[in-house]
Design goal:
Elements lengths: L4 H6 L15 H8 L5 H4 L5 H19 L5 H29 L3 H13 L7 H15 L7 H9 L2 H6 L11 H6 L6 H10 L9 H11 L2 E4 L2 E4 L7 E5 L2 E5 L4 H12 L2 H15 L6 H13 L4 H9 L15 H11 L3 H5 L3 H14 L16 H4 L2 H18 L5 H9 L5 H8 L4 H10 L1 H4 L2
Antiparallel strand pairs: 1-2, 3-4
Helix pairs in contact: 4-5, 4-7, 5-7, 5-17, 8-13, 11-12, 14-15, 15-16, 19-21, 21-24, 22-24, 23-24
Length: 450
């Protein structure tokens, strides 16, 4: 069953737009995914190195303030403001890319993998690193092997800070014996439980602890991530029935296990089910999951092959409505529907805060999920009285401001195509004003679901 243009761009993208181009077949969208993204240059963000340099300036200013040096307090405020500005611009760039990209599937994949390998900005330091993490660890690897994506996320500064891996020290390492500091199991547990095999998989607590020992050595310094053998637990570690490591700790030993973990059948099944659940249905069919899993294992985790298996499966072409859009998806698709992508790129910091605040009221604080398990895939989490009221309020304000001259009867066919009920067509056409008709379109179940 061939997938239609509306389904391809709504279910797997950020929606149709009267002003932005869109793909109409799977082959073209996958071919484009292999190409360099022109928005990489247009919406370039500071590198991790630049962010670390800014943070080092903050640390210096803090020391100078404690020493009562002149202008230290003012310098500290200036640097903090710049960090906050960069974080706000990261959020803006993420949203603008999704709003104006020709390939919405690319941007949805970035969001999906960033959620699978969640880093939540619980403080300004992690939020600052998170912008680089999204681009350098996630975006740069969405078209390669799952193992490369896994290794890039596991060793990125943002992940190491978020899960406190940088303070994990092997008890029998050189530093461990001197400092009497211990092991931190956070990263090991989340990689097994959330990033790869899944909750309830066949690993044990012993596997978690042995993996945590293997991960010691992953550290953060002024250059970002580096491997420090002085804090790495020496000796061999047996994880999932196989032995890794040796007398002389090496980053290669960690990567060997991550490569093996990436090809574990339970990892293939977990990732297949997560993709199917996120893009298609809260309860995906066994056949769909099995098809994606088979493509995963046969291709040795080649992500392009995995995406093709999902997109060409018959379930992908079935009628929409099985998933509720996350607030970020909803806001971005509404902006696309009204052709406001370029306007979003030029909004003021205040307007951006207002948009972000509305998304928080809808239930999603972008870049700051509540925990390492990321955002929920359940419709009930997103559609409840408070969050639904927030969607309605935001949609009404957007429609009133930008929809006075837009004919909703024309727009509805442009952004929903044939995914619209007769009842919605009648209601939109029967309103007293154009903006009210547009508001009805934006708050409709057809627009809120995909």
């Amino acid at each position: 069953m061939a997938i239609s243009k509306p389904i391809l761009n709504i279910r797997f993208g950020y929606g149709l737009s009267p002003n932005e181009p869109a793909f109409d077949n799977v082959a073209d969208i996958l071919a484009d995914l292999k190409k360099a993204d022109p928005l990489d240059n247009k919406l370039a963000r500071p590198s991790l190195k630049e962010r670390i340099n800014l943070y080092e300036r903050l640390r210096k200013a803090r020391r100078e303030e404690k020493q009562n040096k002149s202008n230290a307090t003012r310098n500290l405020k200036v640097i903090r403001k710049k960090m906050q500005q960069w974080v706000a611009e990261d959020i803006k760039a993420f949203m603008v890319r999704a709003a104006i990209s020709k390939n919405g599937f690319r941007e949805r994949l970035v969001a999906f993998w960033a959620d699978n390998f969640t880093v939540s900005g619980r403080n300004l330091e992690i939020m600052l690193a998170n912008g680089a993490y999204t681009n350098e660890a996630i975006r740069a690897n969405i078209g390669g092997k799952f193992s490369d994506l896994l290794k890039a996320s596991a060793t990125h500064t943002a992940m190491l800070l978020f899960l406190d891996q940088h303070v994990s020290i092997g008890p029998n390492s050189v530093a461990g014996k001197n400092r009497k500091k211990g092991l931190n199991e956070n990263l090991a547990r989340e990689i097994l439980e959330l990033h790869t095999m899944g909750v309830g998989a066949s690993y044990t607590q012993v596997d978690v602890r042995e993996f945590a020992k293997l991960l010691t050595g992953l550290s953060v310094g002024k250059e970002g991530f580096h491997f420090n053998p002085r804090i790495s637990e020496p000796g061999k570690k047996t994880i999932l029935g196989k032995t890794y490591g040796g007398a002389k700790p090496n980053l290669r030993h960690i990567f060997q296990f991550l490569d093996d973990l990436a090809m574990h059948p339970e990892t293939a099944n977990h990732i297949a089910k997560k993709l199917a659940t996120h893009f298609i249905s809260e309860n995906p069919s066994k056949h769909l999951v099995a098809t994606i899993k088979q493509a995963y294992l046969q291709s040795c985790g080649d992500l392009m092959t995995i995406y093709e298996a999902m997109l060409t499966h018959e379930d992908s072409a079935k009628p929409m409505g099985g998933k509720v859009k996350w607030p970020s998806e909803y806001v971005i698709s509404a902006i696309r529907a009204l052709g406001l992508g370029n306007e979003l790129a030029n909004v003021t910091a205040k307007d951006l805060r207002n948009i972000h605040s509305s998304m928080i009221l809808m239930g999603q604080d972008l870049f700051r999920p509540a925990g390492p398990d990321g955002w929920s895939e359940k419709a009930s989490y997103w559609i409840n009285p408070p969050s639904l009221a927030a969607r309605i309020n935001w949609a009404g304000g957007l429609a009133f401001e930008y929809g006075q001259e837009l004919d909703p009867r024309i727009l509805i066919s442009q952004v929903l195509d044939d995914n619209v009920s007769k009842e919605l067509l009648y209601a939109v056409g029967d309103t007293e004003s154009k903006w009210e008709g547009l508001a009805l379109l934006l708050i409709s179940p057809e627009f809120n679901r995909r």
